[in-house]
Design brief:
Chain lengths: ~260, ~220
């Protein structure tokens, strides 16, 4: 009945149960049982993306040959994925201190629960919008779903890594979270959401491809537009960055876990 | 069994590091009831938190070969913005027990009625402790950690708690932390006294009490 399992599999079973419990708890405290409840998880990002697409349509800001809706959708959906996932980790520990009186609830579980919720929300809203715009004819077809899935997965992984780093740094120093919010805005223009690398001069292409989110967005757009675009990206580079970024994230979590004490 | 070996806990403060527990050793066998006496601020609650695993020791080890509760009836282990019922759900999920069949028990024991569906932060302290105790009893453990529990509720509820814990669960191990030596005398087989970070163990409770009284008078 009680969870006393030893070894790695035992630990994994316990951890997945804890993360699940935290996830369900997180949904309740954030969205409650009022009106549409947990559906806000994906309705919120969906509303945001729709608003931006509407804005771009009416302002006529879109000047390229690529169809507006899928271009803007793929841009904003990726921004929301990394931005929400990373931002939600800023305050993951403090409101949950009470729960850490239970031995198996660990700092990393608090982070994982929040991250998974954000990733799920961003993913569901992206899928729903893709289907919606396909049905009303704004997206005629997508070229390669597998490429899209790979791009989305690599971006979610990158977001998770960054969330662990930013989240634990902001436990150590509150200033980190505030500075990060500013950096997020400054980072938006180079995040890859608003341009294709191919539109740039060669020297700028080389520079901007160092940014992981640019690679992800390029791959995602190749998945949508196929041969309509000439995408630049490296899956190998993304994988290496994601693996390397995991290390400082996990070390930081370990470091703060020893410091965080119950109330 | 729980085996505590050379346990050390230090906290950083503005005046440097403070050693709260200084090379503490203790073994608790199945069904054994140990009382830990100590004055306010002697490190009793720290010790309970370390044994529960909510905090990590600075040095030393704690081996647990039986299931150990969280600090019992401790209202700090719940989340304020959740309802009483949702807190029960969460705890049941965390400890891997089925939650549906625990509801009637918690409803009955906590006597909270419709307030179980209200956020815990709106509860009075009496309501909070009734919920905390009821949820603590909804999950079974081999060893219960009890931190000054008897400050809880009115005398009728008090009796209910005593019966639930010390009668129905008298086969379990317990670690009871208190500054009230009579309470420990009544419920424990052995006792230990925490003075200045050192734990002094005694086979007989009256010896522990004599030692405790001497030291709480002079320190």
């Amino acid at each position: 009945m009680l969870m006393n399992s030893e070894g790695l599999t035992g630990s994994l079973i316990i951890q997945s149960k804890i993360v699940r419990a935290l996830l369900l708890r997180e949904i309740l405290t954030r969205y409650g049982r009022h009106n549409i409840g947990f559906m806000w998880v994906f309705v919120e990002p969906m509303m945001f993306t729709l608003g931006v697409i509407a804005l771009w349509t009416f302002l006529g800001l879109h000047k390229t040959a690529l169809p507006l809706v899928p271009f803007t959708l793929s841009g904003y959906a990726t921004v929301l994925l990394w931005r929400n996932t990373i931002n939600r980790c800023g305050n993951a520990v403090e409101p949950n201190r009470a729960l850490m009186h239970h031995r198996n609830v660990r700092v990393i579980d608090l982070f994982l629960a929040r991250n998974l919720l954000e990733i799920a929300g961003a993913s569901i809203s992206f899928i729903i919008l893709l289907i919606f715009f396909s049905v009303i004819g704004q997206i005629e077809h997508v070229d390669d779903v597998l490429k899209m899935i790979v791009a989305w997965f690599l971006l979610a992984w990158f977001s998770l890594d960054m969330a662990l780093i930013i989240g634990s740094l902001s436990v150590l120093n509150e200033a980190v979270e505030r500075v990060w919010h500013v950096l997020t805005y400054l980072f938006l223009p180079v995040s890859g959401a608003f341009f294709m690398v191919d539109w740039m001069p060669k020297y700028a292409q080389k520079l901007v491809l160092w940014v992981p989110t640019v690679n992800c967005t390029e791959l995602l757009r190749e998945g949508i537009f196929g041969s309509m675009v000439h995408a630049h990206y490296s899956i190998r580079y993304l994988s290496i960055v994601n693996i390397l970024l995991m290390l400082p994230g996990l070390l930081l979590i370990r470091y703060i876990a020893a410091r965080v004490e119950g109330e | 069994m729980i085996r505590i070996t050379e346990l050390v806990k230090r906290y950083p403060t503005r005046h440097g590091k403070v050693t709260v527990l200084d090379h503490v050793n203790l073994t608790i066998k199945k069904g054994e009831k140990i009382g830990i006496l100590g004055r306010n601020g002697s490190g009793k609650s720290t010790m309970i938190r370390l044994i529960s695993g909510a905090e990590q020791p600075t040095a030393g080890t704690i081996r647990r070969t039986m299931s150990v509760s969280w600090p019992l009836a401790y209202s700090g282990a719940f989340q304020g913005s959740l309802t009483g019922m949702d807190n029960l759900r969460f705890i049941c999920r965390v400890y891997g027990v089925d939650f549906e069949n625990r509801i009637p028990y918690v409803q009955d024991f906590s006597e909270l009625g419709k307030y179980l569906k209200e956020p815990v932060k709106t509860y009075s302290s009496g309501m909070m402790s009734r919920l905390a105790f009821a949820i603590s009893m909804a999950v079974e453990f081999d060893c219960f950690l009890i931190d000054e529990i008897m400050a809880v509720g009115d005398s009728r509820f008090h009796d209910k708690c005593n019966y639930e814990l010390f009668e129905k669960r008298k086969d379990r191990a317990m670690i009871i932390v208190s500054h009230d030596s009579n309470f420990i005398m009544k419920h424990c087989n052995h006792a230990a006294v925490l003075v200045a970070g050192k734990l002094h163990s005694f086979e007989r409770i009256d010896e522990a009490m004599t030692f405790y009284n001497e030291h709480s008078a002079t320190v």
